[in-house]
Amino acid sequence: MDQGRIEDYELELLLSDLIEGYGYDFTDYSKASLKRRINRLLSVDHFPSFAELRFRVRSDENYLRRFVEEITVNVTEMFRDSSFYAALREHVLPVLRTYPLVRIWHAGCSTGEEVYSMAIFLEEMNMLDKCLLYATDLNPSVLETARNGVFPLAQMKQYSANYLQAGGKEEFSRYYTAKYDRAKMDDQLKRKMIFSTHNLVSDRSFNEFQLILCRNVLIYFDKDLQDRVFRLFDDSLEHLGFIALGSKETLRFSPVALNYRQEGKEKIWRKVR
């Protein structure tokens, strides 16, 4: 093997190790994306060979955590795609406001920025107290970041601009406390959040929701895995509930597509049958 290049058969060996040893199933993830990330680990962590990497993953649970963190995608920001959040605020949340209890699932929540974005809008609309926000991810370490609600202060300027473009009504700085180079989100925003590990590939539905958000996760899955996840979401969403996806994702070609109607131009669908 050329240093820094993983072969197809080696990838299959590693994926098999992860299933048999730890229950992590990445077999239907995009092979190109997995190989790109594993090649990066081979280089960054200075493994002389694939065999050394494989041995480390199989024998060192601390390194396993790093491995899973690196090959799962954790790119997010608050109020990402402000037009999406504007549509959510104007067209979806007013509908959910009529419900006595609202359950929202942030699937693949990563470090939690989008969960806090949702909580801010719910608070501004006097809805947060009757909502439960379930934030799940495969990766325990990013969930811990989400649970703590502490982010780099340098990012707040961009997040504030996103928030205002999305229709935010307050001074964004009221929602966090700055200390040195970190920003801690207001604990009041966390009062209705529930954080838990959940594997979209292998775990089952665990509740019935009125809104499911899974944004910029499915683009890294192949078609079969996407379809499996869409069936999971369909099983988890009540009639007339909403599914929200990322800007490059679509429900249109999924096996459950006929159950849904797209709401406007954003990637938001409503379950109509």
In short:
This protein is an alpha/beta fold. Helices cover 40% and strands 19% of the residues.
The fraction of residues assigned to DSSP E strands is 15-25%
What is the distance, rounded to the nearest whole angstrom, between the alpha carbons of the first and last residues? Answer: 52 Å
Class per helix and strand makeup: alpha/beta
Helix content class = 40-55%
Oligomer: single chain
Mean pLDDT: 92
Would you count the extended β strands for me? 10
Physical arrangement of strands within the biggest beta sheet: 6-2-1-7-8-10-9
- Main sheet specs: 7 strands, mixed
Query: What is the number of helices?
Result: 9
Unreliable sequence segments: none
H and E string: HHHHHEHEHEHEEEEHEEE
Rg (CA only): 20 Å
Shape: globular
Would you kindly provide a written description of the structure presented here, covering whatever features stand out?
About 40% of the residues lie in helices and about 20% in strands. The mean pLDDT is about 90. It is globular and about 55 Å long. Helix 1 packs parallel to helix 3 and helix 3 crosses helix 4. The chain is built from nine helices and ten strands. Helix 6 links the parallel strand 1 and strand 2. The strands form two sheets. Strands 6-2-1-7-8-10-9 form a seven-stranded mixed sheet. It has a three-stranded antiparallel sheet with strand order 3-5-4.
Task: For this entry, give a set of tags.
19% strand; 40% helix; three-stranded antiparallel β-sheet; globular; 273 residues; alpha/beta; seven-stranded mixed β-sheet
